[in-house]
Amino acid sequence: MHDIETVTVESVVEKYSLPHIGHDIALMPTLRSLQNVMDAKRMSLCLFIGVCTSGVVTLTVNDRKRAATNDNVMVITDESVINGLRYSDDFDGMGVLISYSLLQDILCDVHNMSDLFLLTHNYPVFSLTQEETNELKVYFDAIARRVQKENHPHRLEVARLMLLTLIYDLSPAIDRTIKAVAMDERQSRAERLFVEFIQRVRSNFREHRQVYWYAEQMGITPKYLSEVISSTSRRSPNQWIDKFVTAEIRNQLKHTSKSIREIAKEMNFSSQSFFGKYFKDNVGVSPSEYRHDS
Asked: Is 256 strand, coil or helix?
């Protein structure tokens, strides 16, 4: 049995000669190439945002079949496995691949919204209003123009700000979907537990980073919680907790003048040295290096 081929911004750019900025952004002017680019593939260190402008596409994301039609947006996250892509003759749309490193940088500016993207791992298709679809098309066209200005000295920075604005404008659609999911009685027990776990982490990650604490609050064993979250989302509970914690630390380092010691205390780390090791293990650089480079 062959390994699933991975998709990165770099691999897609090299293989399909897509308009791009370095290894951070790759544009897909038409989504009819999806079948070649992403079918039977695993997303690796990147995120895909695509809007369907006509027709229908069906695909399986993380073993669950999804369908996107006109006025739907697809947000497919890092480590998701995509296969079974099929689309109607009139299907089309536009999309963008964003590197994980650029995405992390962008989400630092998206206060209290990074948790919405964490949930897209299980719910990757969202409905848009006609107005939202039209606005998204404008964003894609504007980003495409910037990407193609290869001599522009700040085109990555300009594109980054446009993507940030795009994400802000997508948030109502994502929020509507998440609220609908939370109220959907047809969800399996595992899906309900996943949504409850994410909501509890969002409210408590500053004080609690232990899986056993969340399991206790939910009335289940840590082992069962780990099994459910891992099978439902392909990430462990610890990985989800770490994503919330590191996103908040990034925000604090980038947007406040608090000392590293103050942030460590606020985030309930036992010592500044442990805080520094935790951040470097998860982000790759020390808190001071991250703050200096931001």
From this structure: coil
pTM: 0.77
- CA 95 vs CA 28, 65, 268: distances in Å: 5, 20, 40
CA distance 52 to 68: 7
Six-digit token pair at 27? 């544009």
Burial 138-172 (b: 16+ CB within 10 A, else e): ebbeebeebbeeeeeeebbebbbebbbebbeebee
Q: Which two tokens stand for residue 144?
A: 């495409």
The rounded average pLDDT for each run of 10 residues, N- to C-terminus, in the chain (294 residues) is: 77 92 93 86 89 92 88 88 91 93 78 64 85 91 91 92 91 80 69 86 93 97 94 87 89 89 95 96 93 80
With 0-12 CB in 10 A as exposed, 13-18 as middle and 19+ as buried, what is 130?
A: exposed
Residue 133's nearest CA partner among 61, 57, 74 is: 74
Nearest residue to 64 via CA among 183, 232, 178: 232
> Among all chains, which residue has been given the structure tokens 């969002």?
202
Measured distance CA(18)–CA(21) in Å, rounded: 10
